[in-house]
Write a structure and sequence with these properties.
With 459 residues, the chain is an alpha/beta fold. The chain has 4 domains: 109 residues, Beta Barrel (OB fold (Dihydrolipoamide Acetyltransferase, E2P)); 140 residues, 3-Layer(aba) Sandwich (Rossmann fold), CATH 3.40.50.261; 88 residues; 37 residues, no CATH class. Helices cover 47% and strands 19% of the residues. The strands form 4 sheets. It has a 5-stranded mixed barrel with strand order 3-4-5-7-6. Strands 9-8-10-11-12 form a 5-stranded parallel sheet. A 3-stranded antiparallel sheet has the order 13-14-15, with no helix packed on it. It is elongated. GO terms for molecular function: exodeoxyribonuclease VII activity; nucleic acid binding. Its EC number is 3.1.11.6.
Length: 459
């Protein structure tokens, strides 16, 4: 209170308006009773301001108070307030210093007369949630192409009409079966459960179920919050789409279902694919598949053409020339080694003979000569077996090369064709009517003239 003025003979203290309003506000804010006030009354001067704070009045038969509800709090309101509607508010009382007035700052708003019902809703929601009925892990995927769709709703309402029109437009193949039920009133919950139990008995025939009704008050939608109905939705053997009330309404059936739709039309769109879009996607996939196949075939054709025109195919003997040369070198080395060993053995035998002759041990000489002769024969036999083994390996190699030889292919009745420049013909695109070609056989060749060229599609 820094702006106090002192005037007059008695030096009286005069407050500014701001000081007084500030002082009064402090009194309000220090009163703990005014921090949490539960207020009931009738909405007055209510004009909805989209995306902003709400300013209105709350009145009864004898008095009225101004109310402010900030945007963050108003966005949590679960119904649409209207002029003249009786409501319950919770909040605090304080002053607006600029105008020197006091007002109610509302934090929550509920329609009057529904407090007990809403409390039941919250309690049941907590109970079923703790049991896992609303667990996202339980949610099932909707079928892509349903054959049969079961609908639980009123037989006379607009819900079934909107669902059938939308489903028939998007996916005429799907069959829509209506299981009529009461959707409002004391008997509605039992009627809804009975209809779902009929569907459950035929679960092997049903691909997806839609349960729903149009908009209404909390009392009107209450059957879809009944515990028996919610548990039956959770227990269904097929995926369930819930479409109850408007987009701003939320029922326990919505939470237990596998998917929620804001309108019956949206529910039908969730349950069915758009056939036109599916056909377009299939056509695009088919085109991509054919393009890929043709590309692979073209790559293989080019590789085959390169192989067919390669030096190895024209001169297959080059495949085994180096191997044959290696075999010749090995044979030569084996022969030289055998000669060296024979010469060494002969020299050792001669040396032994000389030593024996010098000592004249005739019997010992004879034994050594026999041993030398025996070793000589073993060496010859070993060399013979070694050469025979290498010769057999060489023969197998030659046979394998012959098996892959184009000449061998020709001997089985196949031919290949060249043009006048002796170039290999691998495609009809290299020919035209009147072209001169040579057809090569295993035992010769023949000249021919092309009368007609016809290209065939591959794929």
């Amino acid at each position: 209170m820094d702006s106090i003025k002192q005037t007059g003979p008695g030096e009286q203290k005069y407050l500014t308006v701001s000081d007084l309003n500030w002082y009064i506000r402090q009194k309000f804010d220090k009163d703990h009773f005014l921090h949490q006030v539960f207020l009931q009354g009738e909405l007055s001067n209510f004009r909805y301001r989209r995306g902003g704070h709400q300013y209105f009045s709350l009145k009864d038969d004898h008095a009225k108070i101004n109310v402010v509800m900030f945007r963050n709090d108003f966005e949590k309101v679960k119904f649409e307030p209207e002029e003249g509607m009786k409501v319950y508010l919770t909040g605090r009382v304080s002053t607006y210093e600029v105008q020197g007035s006091y007002q109610f700052y509302a934090r929550t708003m509920e329609p009057a007369g529904l407090g007990a019902l809403y409390e039941r809703f919250l309690q049941l929601q907590k109970k079923l949630s703790s049991e896992g009925l609303f667990n996202p892990d339980h949610k099932r995927r909707l079928p892509l192409f349903p054959d049969k769709i079961a609908v639980v709703t009123s037989a006379s309402g607009a819900v079934i009409h909107d669902i059938m029109v939308t489903a028939n437009r998007r996916f005429p193949h799907a069959e829509i079966d209506l299981y009529p039920a009461q959707v409002q009133g004391e008997e509605a919950a039992a009627s809804l459960v009975a209809a779902m139990q009929q569907i459950q008995a035929r679960s092997s025939e049903v691909d997806v179920m839609i349960i729903g009704r149009g908009g209404g008050s909390l009392e009107d939608l209450w059957p879809f919050n009944e515990e028996a109905v919610v548990r039956q939705v959770y227990a269904m053997n097929m995926p369930v789409i819930s479409s109850v009330g408007h987009e701003t309404d939320t029922t326990l059936c919505d939470l237990a279902a596998d998917a929620r739709a804001a309108t019956p039309t949206a529910a039908a769109e969730l349950a069915t694919p758009d056939l036109a879009s599916v056909l377009t996607d299939l056509a695009q996939l088919q085109a991509r598949l054919l393009h890929g196949i043709r590309a692979v075939i073209e790559v293989r054709k080019q590789a085959l053409a390169r192989l067919d025109s390669s030096v190895v195919m024209r001169e297959p003997q080059r495949l085994y020339e180096q191997k044959a040369q290696q075999v010749d070198m090995l044979t030569q080395r084996m022969g030289d080694l055998m000669k060296l060993r024979l010469q060494g053995a002969s020299q050792r035998a001669g040396n032994l003979t000389q030593r024996l002759q010098a000592q004249s041990p005739d019997k010992r000489v004879m034994q050594l000569l026999q041993q030398a002769d025996f070793l000589d024969k073993r060496l010859v036999t070993a060399m013979k077996h070694l050469l025979e083994g290498k010769g057999s390996e060489f023969g197998q190699l030659v046979q394998q090369l012959n098996d892959f030889s184009p000449l061998q292919t020709l001997s089985r009745g196949y031919t290949y064709t060249t043009n006048e420049d002796n170039e290999m013909i691998v495609s009809v695109k290299q020919l035209q009517a009147g072209s001169q070609v040579q057809i090569h056989f295993a035992d010769g060749r023949a000249k021919a003239t092309i009368d007609e060229v016809k290209e065939e599609e591959n794929g």
